């Protein structure tokens, strides 16, 4: 499911006040990081991810890889912060326009 521009705008507005729920460190995209991101997406649907300064990753490539491996969508890449969205499979809280 690809997000439309209107849906991305809505999600960016919702994610503005969020604190980063997951942080990518110098180890990069580890299994533990993916497990934490999976749980955060299940709990919150919209998760802000911070890429640390020591992480040797391209932010856009990391966003696409995280989205691919978690089945989520990239709502925003701004600086070293990513915003990922995945609707809850049973009871979605966020209703996209």
How many helices? 3
Shape: globular
CATH fold call: Translation Initiation Factor IF3
- Biggest sheet architecture: 4 strands, mixed
- Considering DSSP H and I runs of 4 or more, what fraction of the residues is helical? 25-40%
- Rounded mean pLDDT score: 95
Explain the overall architecture.
The chain is α+β, with helices and mostly antiparallel strands and 97 residues long. It has a single domain (5-85), classed as YhbY-like (Translation Initiation Factor IF3, 2-Layer Sandwich). Helices cover 38% and strands 21% of the residues. The chain is built from three helices and four strands. The chain has helices at 5-15, 31-44, 59-70; strands spanning 22-24, 46-51, 73-78, 81-85. The chain has a four-stranded mixed sheet, with helices on both faces. Helix 2 (31-44) links the parallel strand 1 (22-24) and strand 2. The relative contact order is 0.23. The model has no long low-confidence stretch (mean pLDDT 95).
SSE arrangement:
Elements: H1 5-15, E1 22-24, H2 31-44, E2 46-51, H3 59-70, E3 73-78, E4 81-85
Parallel strand pairs: 1-2
Antiparallel strand pairs: 2-4, 3-4
């Amino acid at each position: 499911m690809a997000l439309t521009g209107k849906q991305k705008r809505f999600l960016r507005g919702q994610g503005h006040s969020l604190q980063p729920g997951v942080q990518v460190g110098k180890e990069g995209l580890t299994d533990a990081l993916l497990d934490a991101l999976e749980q955060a997406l299940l709990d919150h649907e919209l998760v802000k991810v911070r890429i640390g300064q020591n992480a040797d990753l391209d932010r856009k490539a990391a966003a696409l890889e995280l989205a691919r491996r978690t089945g989520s969508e990239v709502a925003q890449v701004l600086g070293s912060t990513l915003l990922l969205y995945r609707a809850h499979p049973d009871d979605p809280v966020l209703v996209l326009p």
